[in-house]
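Here's what a typical entry looks like (Microtubule-associated protein RP/EB family member 1B):
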Amino acid sequence: MASNIGMMDSAYFVGRNEILSWINARLQLNFTRVEEAASGAAQCQMMDMTYPGVVPMHKVNFDAKTEYDFIQNYKVLQDVFNKLKIDKHIEVNRLVKGRPLDNLEFLQWLKRYCDSVNGGLMNENYDPVERRTKGGKERSIKGSQKNHKSLQASNSVNSSSSEGDCTVLRRCTSARQGKSGIVPSAVNPSLEIKALTKEVSDLKLSVEGLEKERDFYYEKLRDIEVLCQSPDVENNPIVVEVKKILYAADEEETA
């Protein structure tokens, strides 16, 4: 079924707002941009709604923040596709970057597929919030069990090696004192913590500033892109040149 959805299918002409409304209505989410779905969690739950019980929701991380966590979600999704014999390869490396066009295209495909299975009707017996909550609890329990085992193993190793570490530390300290004749002054832990805390705060402010700047320029570029796609101007020579600039990075990566 998936292999029959070509690039010229009407699915790929569904707008961003319709896609967001579809996700938010069915999963009771509040996405405002398609790139918010880059973690792959929403796609996993959409398949869970379409095929109840097939997706191991306890493996789906809705709090994913890093590309590594995103990839784990897409692994779950690809396993579900394979299990259902859905002939669709997920371009994980492109999706996890949060690029709007890549994520929009994949969500357009997903909507077309889900609608072809359930006729576009919502599963009234499916509670998306409860499924996310239950999955999160199961993941937390399993994660805590793993952490407990790891902690026990770590404590065992640390207890057996602590005496040796202390001996090595004393030898190193004695060697330094022997060479310099001066006992090094102890570092004040509170001052070091304050310095590190200030450094972290500065980095956070810097990141927030960069993210705001990125979002500002993205919205401007998106407005230009929408304008260039208007039938009234899309064949204008100037607009054609602007589109070449907009998609230059995509073409280089494809090449």
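The longest helix spans residues 128-180.

More examples are in the samples folder.
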